[in-house]
Write a structure and sequence with these properties.
mainly alpha, globular
Length: 39
Amino acid sequence: MVDARVHLSKYANRVLTVVKAKYDLNDKSQALNKFIEDY
């Protein structure tokens, strides 16, 4: 596993929040991984 600090735009943050809710994930790190796997 790699740790990374990222700066997100408001839009990117909103997208991760939607992905997190849609797939019932625990945090935005999981949401980011899911987004990357899907797209």
